[in-house]
Amino acid sequence: MKNTILLLFLFFLACDSMNCIDDNDNDQNEIEWTKQASIPKDLRISAEVVTYNNEAYLMPGKGGSRFSIEPEILKYSNNIWSEIASYDGWANAGNSGAWINGDLIYLIGGLNGSGAPTDEVRSFSLNNTDFRTQNETPIPSGNRASVSSCNTDTKGYIGYGTSHNPDFQIEDNIWTYDFASGIWESIPSPSIDQAPHFSLMTSENNCVYLLFPSLAANNFYRWEEKSKEWMDLADFPGDTRTESVIVSTETHIYTGLGRTTLGDEHIYDDIWQYNIEKNEWVAFSQYPSTPFHSGFAFEMNNELFFGGGATTVIISSDSLNDEIYRVKVGN
Fold first, then answer.
1. How far apart are alpha carbons 136 and 102 in whole angstroms?
2. Helix or strand (DSSP H, E) at 226
3. How far is it, in rounded angstroms, from Cα 155 to Cα 287?
4. Which residues on adjacent β-strands are paired with residue 259?
5. Residue 49 DSSP label
6. Among 154, 196, 159, 144, which residue's Cα sits nearest to residue 178?
7. Please, what's the largest Cα pairwise distance for the chain?
8. Please, what is the Cα angle at 233 between 229 and 235, to 5 degrees?
9. Is 3 within the bounds of a domain?
10. Residue-number span of the structural domain to which 216 is assigned
């Protein structure tokens, strides 16, 4: 009997040392961040990134001063940045949403050169060398900036945004755009107590997820296409924040960074992981360098990339962030 107890003790001790017993999705000791090539120029905030054929494309965004715009489109490939075009559609040059369908990139809404929101939707093909844009059907509800967006294989989605400068009225209607027909369709909004001024959207396995990190309840939802309703998921457990980032893989969703909505003007460095199958959140990691808000995150080959944005709450050209960090999250 004593020998049996001894063997069991040694077995559990060995398992623990080899991480055989682990209820977490990740082992913090195995998370390794790697600094990538810095953004070489044309630094910006509130700019979307889309990926295509294992390359990432940084869309236009706002510069360091109030109404400055950085219209250049930058490509990231094999840890090298290059400028591929100067975007010709000033109407979507900052705070716009972005979709990708095949080789077509769509920019939705956003701010024009004078800082006013627009309802324009423009697309361009990555396979055309001149990158000239074409007009698509505009947003039916009118002008919209600070657009949350994502797409599935067949549809683009836009969520909450702001419409009228300087009042910044919140637009809480949600729309889908059919890539084949070019037709917009309104879908119901989640039932929440107040319309948030900031939201995040992402999609995975043709499912759309909507997060409200700026609300005290931190509501999190998934759109059910068959029943045409939002399914209430486990609430985001992190602190309330705005201007944070979101990115997804086949099995998990990651969100974090950003800044406080009110009060002490704090910028967060935490990143959280959501398990899609388990409907559970866990703390994933702390960002390894100076944290930022209004930046971007994207995924390629089971690796996540975080960067850009600004490192101070009061934005200036000196606070724009050129750093990019990569972390591997899958096999």
1. 16
2. none
3. 32
4. 242, 267
5. E
6. 154
7. 81
8. 135
9. no
10. 34-328
The residue type at 330: G
Q: The tokens of 57 are what?
A: 């494309």
Please check whether residue 26 lies inside any domain of the structure: no
Three-state SS at 319: helix
- Hey, is 17 helix, strand or coil? helix
Domains in the chain: how many in total?
1
Least trusted range by pLDDT, from 13-22, 131-140, 224-233, 308-317: 13-22
Residue 136 covered by a domain: yes
Confidence of residue 93 (pLDDT cuts 50, 70, 90): low
Count other Cβ atoms within 10 Å, centred on residue 27.
9
What's the average model confidence in pLDDT over 207-231?
91
CATH number of the CATH domain containing 284: 2.120.10.80
From CA 245, how far away is CA 72, in angstroms rounded? 21
Q: How far apart are CA 59 and CA 87, in angstroms?
A: 9
Q: Let me know: does 105 contact 124? Beta carbons within 8 Å.
A: yes
Residue 12 has pLDDT above 50, yes or no: no
**Element at 8 (helix H, strand E):** helix 2-17
- Of 282, 327, 324, 329, give the one whose Cα is nearest residue 40: 324
Do the Cβ atoms of 248 and 260 come closer than 8 Å? no
| 75 DSSP β-pair partners | 57, 82
Q: What does DSSP assign to residue 91?
A: G
If you compute the radius of gyration of the chain from its CA atoms, what whole number of angstroms results? 21
Is residue 119 within 8 Å of 176, Cβ to Cβ?
Answer: no
The answer to the question of residue 23 being in a domain is no
What tokens were used for 257? 């960074």
pTM, entire model:
0.89
pLDDT in tens, 62-74: 887 766 788 888 9
pLDDT tens-digit map of 22-58: 344 555 458 999 999 999 988 999 999 999 999 999 9
Say if residue 28 is exposed, middle or buried (CB neighbours under 10 Å; 0-12, 13-18, 19+). exposed
Q: Indicate whether 111 pLDDT > 90.
A: no
